[in-house]
Amino acid sequence: MAGSGFVKATSWKFTSCRCFNGGRIYETDKRFNIAEEDILQEIHEVLGESDKFPTYNDLNKMKFMERCIKECLRLYPSVPFISRVIGEDIKTTTGYTIPKGCDVNIHIYDLHRAPQIWENPEKFDRDRFLPDNIATRHPFAYIPFSAGPRNCTGQRYALLEIKTALCGILSKFKLEPVDTPQTCRHKTDLVLRPNGEIKVRFIPRK
Ligand code: HEM
Hints:
By secondary structure, this protein is α+β, with helices and mostly antiparallel strands. Helix content is about 45%, strand content about 15%.
């Protein structure tokens, strides 16, 4: 139990929390500010105006919030790249052969911003994960939790914890960015990490 608690705590700190920070703090434009108020409205629709703690069923009803979280994880994947050792020779569609035994890095950050896949890739689009819009997308175009047999075992839990945190924070505070995408830089690491502090203003809601 202690081990599992530790995994959850560290997973939150290094992944879910990154998603939360990344999405809110870097996305300073009006599209996200409007989304934030609409997320709060959805929270009120599901929970009422009370301080009720959300249940599993409540969280599953928060579909708009979920789409915004997914868009944050597209723009700022907490795990920006993963690595694999190739198990057999692979022929690419461009005619190259990647031999068995090679180390390969899959750059999730770049994949999630590839213009061949995403229209206006740099834009925060709250509708990008509507069912109609994901129906035609390649299943491996969006892989914040990796894919295949070694994908993230905590992904459902991660979404629930991010949603829970958003319910608590957004119902009490309006968040305003202090740092911007222009002032923040990332540094190379296993998780997407800012090169310094990211400041955000918490304004209590009346
Ligand atoms: C937004 C939050 C999270 C993101 C973006 C994320 C992302 C990922 C990614 C990309 C991998 C694959 C790593 C690789 O293939 O090298 C992974 C693996 C894993 N994640 Fe997460 N993760 C998140 C939260 C969590 C949480 C909350 C837990 C646990 C409660 C968790 C547990 C694990 C475990 C155990 C693996 C290894 C799976 C395996 O190798 O079979 N993750 N995660």
